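In the current project phase, our protein records have gained a structure token line. A sample record follows, to show the layout:
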Amino acid sequence: MELSILPDFQGHGSGRQLIKSAQAEAMRTKVPVRLSVEIGNPAMSFYEGLGFVRKKQRQPTMVWCGCLRVSDLGYVS
């Protein structure tokens, strides 16, 4: 699935609400939320603020594991 917020609608909380809803569902079902972000994209700090960590320095994948230990999945913080 691919989701994005159009630039005119960014900065109004819609993206944060979508991510938080996904995180709540992930906690309920005990699965991680993964997303892909281009390295250097300013949105990385947005995702990190929501608890995502980088999978590996050279890969543009981040993960949030609210109910799992991130270290168990081989991710770095």
Notes: Helices lie at 14-29, 43-49.
